[in-house]
Amino acid sequence: MSAYLIVMREGPLLDDEAMAQYQTRTRQLASKIKLKPLALYGELIPLEGVAPDAALVLEFGSIEDAMAWYKAPDYQVALQYRLKSAEFRSFIINGL
C-alpha cells in the first residue's frame, strides 16, 4: 500500500544557505528505496484554516519504505540543514 510523506513549512525561510545545503544533499542521496515526488513547493490555495508557507508530498511504496528513507543515516545528516532553515511539520500517511 502506498504511503505519503508530507512536509509543511510553517513560516518563511530563516536560513537560505541551510536550505540550499539540504536540497543539494537530498538530491545526491543514493537510495535503494524508490520515492516519487508528487508536489514540491508549488502554489498553495487555502480552503480551511491557515495554509502552510510551503509543502511537499513524496510517494513511497509503503510506510516502512517511507520510514526507512527518513531514518537513513544520509538523510538524517541532510535533515539537520532543513530543520535549521525554518520551522517544519512532517508526517507519513497511508494511501488507499
Describe this structure in words.
By secondary structure, the chain is an alpha+beta fold. The protein has a single domain, classed as Alpha-Beta Plaits (2-Layer Sandwich). 35% of the residues lie in helices and 28% in strands. It has helices at 16-27, 63-71, 73-85, and strands spanning 3-9, 35-40, 54-60, 88-94. It has a four-stranded antiparallel beta sheet. Helix 1 (16-27) packs antiparallel against helix 3 (73-85). The longest helix has 13 residues, at 73-85.
Shape: globular
Strand order of the largest sheet: 2-3-1-4
Main β-sheet: number of strands, strand sense, barrel status? Answer: 4 strands, antiparallel
Indicate the CATH class: Alpha Beta
Strand content: 25-35%
Helicity range: 25-40%
Low-confidence stretches: none
For the record, the CATH architecture stands as 2-Layer Sandwich
Number of helices: 3
Secondary-structure element string? EHEEHHE
**Integer tally of domains:** 1
**How does the helix and strand content classify structurally?**
alpha+beta
Features:
alpha+beta; Alpha-Beta Plaits; 3 helices; globular; 28% strand; single chain; 4-stranded antiparallel beta sheet; 96 residues
